[in-house]
Design brief:
Elements lengths: L1 H24 L10 E3 L3 H10 L6 H6 L10 H4 L24 H12 L4 E3 L6 E3 L9 E6 L10 E4 L2 E9 H4 L2 E4 L17 E2 L25 H8 L10 E2 L6 E2 L9 E9 L2 E7 L21
Parallel strand pairs: 4-8
Antiparallel strand pairs: 1-5, 2-3, 4-6, 5-6, 7-11, 9-10, 11-12
Protein name: Headcase middle domain-containing protein
Pfam family, one: Headcase
Organism: Pristionchus fissidentatus
């Protein structure tokens, strides 16, 4: 009987040790020291500065910055219900402790160096004004390793890796999304906090279909535990490098494209229900209307 008890205890301990090792394999990103840094090409900055005199800019004369000062929240109020209009669902300036505003400063510094006063939504391409205080935009900023067609290529360094700065407008976030391949509707844009920066690709949150290689389009074999951790909320793991067994390319194959979704822009405005476009195919963006020099490469 003692031998049986000892055997059961040993088996239980081995299971616990195995579970601990599995948890250590893909730890939560929040438990690791992460760093967000600007990635500004000095030559690009010099060319943009030489092309325009900073203190002669009308926006700078009015606001002391190239970014807008927010006068109202009309655009947000036209989409989200008033019960959601609070500091829980919208990043407000009062949420930031004094001296702990590194994310906002890093983001605005990078965009300012590129003279980017607005960015187009990656879904509908509507231009979104960038504000100098929280909420920084009428939508969300997020980081992605995939360039989007018609969106300027401006990037930050996060954990030493280059990521594109991209935005989704509040109207697209609060629309109905479904996977174009399987019909999955698990994307919950309404749960994201507006006006701030997410350090992962929010478009890649739903992992409903078998991921495909970004180089050869072959199916990627993904460890089930990795998908499980992502579904549990560790969304930064969508950028985990995976090697394709077909072509040998190693990169974040779990990152998804906006064209993987059907998007119905449906929202209420002044008591009228509006239904917008379906974003099922790549769309050509409108011209940004500037001769700004933008670095299109990531190094």
């Amino acid at each position: 009987r003692e031998r049986k008890t000892t055997s059961d205890e040993s088996l239980s301990r081995s299971r616990v040790a195995s579970m601990r090792n599995e948890c250590k394999k893909w730890p939560r990103k929040e438990s690791i020291h992460t760093e967000l840094r600007c990635s500004i090409d000095p030559e690009l900055l010099k060319r943009n500065v030489d092309a325009k005199t900073f203190f002669e800019d009308d926006q700078v004369k009015d606001n002391g910055s190239i970014f807008c000062k927010r006068d109202n929240f009309d655009n947000l109020k036209s989409v989200i219900p008033m019960c959601k209009f609070n500091g829980i669902h919208i990043k407000m300036e009062d949420d930031c402790p004094q001296g702990g505003d590194d994310v906002r400063l890093c983001l605005l510094k990078t965009l300012g160096a590129h003279d980017m006063r607005s960015l187009p939504c990656v879904s509908c391409f509507d231009p979104l004004a960038i504000y100098d205080k929280y909420p920084l935009v009428d939508g969300i900023f997020f980081l992605s390793t995939l360039p989007r067609q018609g969106v300027p290529s401006v990037h930050l360094l996060f954990d030493g890796r280059p990521f594109y700065i991209q935005v989704l407008c509040v109207r697209c976030l609060w629309s109905d999304w479904d996977c174009r391949h399987c019909g999955d509707e698990s994307f919950m844009g309404r749960s994201l906090i507006l006006g701030t920066l997410y350090t992962f690709d929010v478009i890649s949150i739903p992992q409903c279909c078998t991921p495909l290689c970004h180089s050869c389009n072959a199916p990627i074999s993904v460890p089930p535990q990795l998908i499980q951790y992502i579904k549990m909320g560790n969304y930064s793991l969508v950028h985990e490098p995976i090697t394709c067994s077909s072509c040998g390319t190693t990169r974040d194959h779990l990152s998804r494209r906006i064209t993987d979704y059907n998007l119905n822009r449906q929202f209420s405005q002044s008591g009228v229900t509006l239904i917008g476009i379906e974003a099922t195919v790549p769309m050509t963006s409108p011209k940004l209307g500037t001769d700004l020099i933008v670095d299109s490469s990531i190094s």
